[in-house]
Amino acid sequence: MMSFSSATSSPAAFALDVQAIVRYVVAMRRTRLDEDVTPLSEFRANVSTFVQRIRKTKRPVVLTQRGRSAAVVLDVSEYEQLLEEVETLRDVHLAEKQVAQGRGVPHARARARVSAALRR
Fold first, then answer.
1. Fewer CB near the terminus (10 Å): N or C of the chain?
2. Strand pairing partners for 73?
3. Which helix (H) or strand (E) segment is 24 a member of?
4. What is the mean pLDDT of the chain?
5. Is the pTM of this model over 0.70?
């Protein structure tokens, strides 16, 4: 879990960091609606071809059933990256709440804790 120093940064600075992370996540390979939305029946008939395309392009495929979105198929590495980014955003959100509640740690104390932990 991340910890931030209330002595060196304001909650506004953390909000900017979150916005930068969100921009990065949004920049992830976006779905092309003309190519990446597919009926489930077509996917079932050509699974191998779709998996190859997903691995190559790193773009998700949205599967539809009866004309409505039903599932998303992602490349494993893209899925893992997405999970890591979500975890980071949750940590940043928690840190922002802690700083807003006055539970931040001064930089010198945080640095001393990290240094002590690294020496072990």
1. C
2. 61
3. helix 11-26
4. 82
5. no
- With 0-12 / 13-18 / 19 or more C-beta atoms within 10 angstroms meaning exposed / middle / buried, residue 61 is buried
* pLDDT tens digits, 76-90: 999 999 999 999 999
Indicate the residue type of 91. D
pLDDT reported for residue 104: 85
The answer to whether 72 and 63 are in contact (CB under 8 A) is: yes
Domain boundaries, the chain: 11-119
Q: Write the burial class of residue 118 (CB in 10 Å: 0-12 exposed, 13-18 middle, 19+ buried).
A: exposed
Rounded Cα distance between 62 and 37, Å, is 5
- CATH node for 11-119: 3.40.1620.10
- Residue 5 is predicted with a pLDDT of 42
Higher pLDDT, 13 or 97: 97
Query: Which pair of tokens denotes residue 29?
Result: 């390979």
